[in-house]
Write a structure and sequence with these properties.
The protein has 359 residues and is an alpha/beta fold. Helices cover 32% and strands 22% of the residues. The N terminus is likely disordered.
Length: 359
């Protein structure tokens, strides 16, 4: 398998784009508005820096309204002070907050306050210019013997899927190009459930950006609405690897539903087939089991009533986070079975892949 043709891309198209007064004044903000207008999307130029919208009282209707709205705003200083993002990377750098996908296990539910509007940052240049101050200051890769070769790592997909927003924002391409010319031991990282990587393939990335495809078995596709098919994500990952990017698989969230062994075994085999024959591939693997908090469960239940995703207390244990909150994870026996399976199957099918962490 030497090459894979470009897939039919899933492209998010919001119903409207709002722009705050300050965002309108910045070059990157104006370019986003021009792209939106060029695609025939309604652009609303706000007279202040507050994004104020009224939503229906019905949670489902409010969710639908918010999910079809993109806001172009300016990231305040608090958002530009980077936070550690273990175990993925040294630092979290946000190009946006919010995601247009409709995943019924959404990690952002309960993490971001208010209606799930996607907000993109117009002051991208200011965000990127602040990154050198963090060089060598992290603890996940900067000072880790096992991952020191990655340099200082910056995760761009903690609170968003930047590839999903790229057709409107261009922010990901700009960040990749910025890292490509940064003569430092540093790496940008992002993971995505989307597949339109064509704008990224010709960039001068310098090997300083790692794309990971976030994948789950086809049997669980019903939990990932509005995203590219898994086969398309894997094909996109191959094209990125052939373009010289380091790449990765984010298998998340691992769901221990009936038949999971066969489902994930097929997924691993599909990934091995998609990435086969790429000379010198630099491949990492991240394994994240399904978990939820009481708050996120309440939000998800209101967004996706009747979802088949099991968020009962069966085969679950309570784990306290470093922030003092509690989350429900799989019990010890289930976790052991899952971990044993993945480490064995991945070692057999993708021996070139390095497992970065299990959580």
């Amino acid at each position: 398998m030497l090459d894979v043709p470009a897939s039919r891309a899933v492209v998010w198209r919001p119903r409207r784009v709002l722009a705050t007064r300050s965002a309108q004044a910045l070059p990157h903000g104006r370019s986003i508005l021009e792209r939106a207008a060029g695609q025939g999307i309604e652009v609303v130029e706000l007279s202040s820096d507050r994004v104020t919208l009224s939503f229906p009282d019905d949670p489902r209707r409010a969710y639908a309204e918010a999910k079809s709205t993109l806001a172009v705003v300016v990231a305040p200083p608090s958002k530009r002070r980077l936070q550690p993002i273990a175990p993925s990377a040294d630092w979290r750098v946000d190009l946006a907050e919010g995601c247009p996908a409709h995943c019924s296990y959404c990690y952002l539910a309960g993490s971001l306050k208010g209606p799930p509007i996607t907000r993109v940052y117009a002051n991208l240049e200011e965000i990127l210019d602040g990154l050198p101050a963090y060089l060598g200051q992290g603890t996940i890769t900067s000072r880790s013997a096992a991952r020191a070769h990655e340099g200082t790592t910056f995760e761009a997909s903690c609170y968003t899927d930047p590839l999903a927003l790229e057709p409107l924002t261009g922010s990901l391409s700009a960040a990749i190009a910025w890292f490509g010319q940064w003569d430092a031991a540093a790496q940008l990282r992002f993971t995505s459930k989307f597949a339109d990587v064509e704008p990224l393939l010709g960039l001068a990335h310098g090997g300083r950006t790692r794309m990971r495809a976030s994948v789950n078995p086809r049997a669980f596709a019903r939990f990932e609405g509005g995203t590219s098919r898994v086969a398309e994500r894997l094909a996109a990952l191959r094209r990125m690897a052939l373009a010289g990017y380091p790449v990765g698989l984010t298998i998340a969230p691992i769901i221990a539903a009936p038949g999971w062994e066969q489902a994930y075994g097929t997924l691993i085999d599909d990934a091995a087939a998609a990435l086969g024959g790429v000379a010198g591939i630099d491949l990492t693997i991240e394994l994240i089991t399904h978990r939820f908090t009481a708050g996120s469960k309440a939000v998800l239940d209101s967004w996706y009533p009747g979802s088949a995703l099991d968020m009962s207390g069966e085969k679950r244990s309570t784990k306290r986070t470093k922030f003092g909150t509690e989350k429900q994870v799989y019990d010890a026996e289930t976790m052991r079975a899952l971990r044993r399976f993945f480490e064995t199957r991945l070692g057999e099918a993708l021996p070139a892949g390095r497992i970065l962490y299990w959580t």
